[in-house]
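Input record (Table S2, row 346):
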Amino acid sequence: MKLIIIGAGVSGLAAAYTINQHAPYIALHCIEKSRGLGGRAATRRREGATFDHGAQFFRTSDSDQLAFLTQTLPHDQLIDITKPVGVFDQYNQISAGDPAQNTAPKLVYRSGMNNLAKLLAPKNLTVSLQTRLHHVVKTATGYDCIDDQNTVIAHGDALLFTPPAPQTIEILQASQLDPAMIAHLCSGLAPAVYRPCLSITMAFDGRLEFPFYALVNSDRQHPFSWIAFEHDKDPSRVPTGQTLVTIQLAPAASTDWWQADEAMLITELMPRLNQLLDSALPSPLWLDRQGWKYALPNGKADQTILETYEQSDGLYFTGDALAGLGRIHLAMEHGMHIAQRIIAQH
Ligand SMILES: Cc1cc2nc3c(=O)[nH]c(=O)nc-3n(C[C@H](O)[C@H](O)[C@H](O)COP(=O)(O)OP(=O)(O)OC[C@H]3O[C@@H](n4cnc5c(N)ncnc54)[C@H](O)[C@@H]3O)c2cc1C
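Output record (flavin-adenine dinucleotide complex):
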């Protein structure tokens, strides 16, 4: 039995980890369109700095999952961001955040969020990076996975789809499968619509010390939904004497400034940032941007529909679309859950 996993984000790699541990007789091949592992648990390095331009940190209230992260997986890089998260409103009024949320550990890897993906990926996992699955073709013996160049990348008995639901819908609609099945599966994925997020990271000369590690917008009336200081995660992340700020723009502002060039972003963002922080940060040393077209799900895919073709056709689905909420721990939990279903059925 060979399973093709589409996507090397946390959910797909959590599934690969579980299958490798409990059913090593299932051969695995992961196809990933980007250059590395992690998906939206993403980390970038630039000019001596390390920053997370997707997920910022993760939490879990599940004691088994916490034990897995802090005992089973290597955990020497796992740290708790102890400084609190504050809130701000449209008038730039800052106040203390939820005390309960602030006392729960805010977990992150010192070397970056994508370290979680590297730890989950089995050492012997075959991964085709920079390979975008365009469509699949049903054959007499399983599925051919075809890339943008119309080349067969892999052949498998079963498929596990992990991308955000709209991207999985695109693949299914281009595939040579039973049209009624495609329509049914797409109707199961459709409720998981995603909102966009433009994430901007800027480095500044001088270290700004702030009472909060991060600030989250509470009234959804501000163009910034989140700002965070990378040096508060761990000093090793930022060159000495510099400040590294990550700003996540709200969905409307993300759309408005999606195409803006660097100069325009600096002109638009700097006065707002200085007003919010009551600071006088100078022009940035550098600016980095990442547009996430499908950042966070607003709705939840229909699990009942998506389970219909598991046993009969070997088609499986996981990812945060199934959780209905963009959270690392939920994507990981669902990846492990679907792996158990695959194991039980093979
Ligand atoms: C800006 C931002 C901030 C966030 N903040 C937090 C946070 O602070 N805490 C938290 O818990 N969560 C946060 N999240 C959400 C969290 O990152 C996601 O819920 C989680 O990473 C989803 O994992 P996944 O495996 O479901 O999907 P993904 O990580 O998206 O993995 C899917 C993979 O499939 C690949 N793929 C897509 N299409 C194809 C194709 N055709 N062929 C091959 N590969 C393909 C993608 O490249 C990707 O690697 C944030 C997300 C974003 C974008």
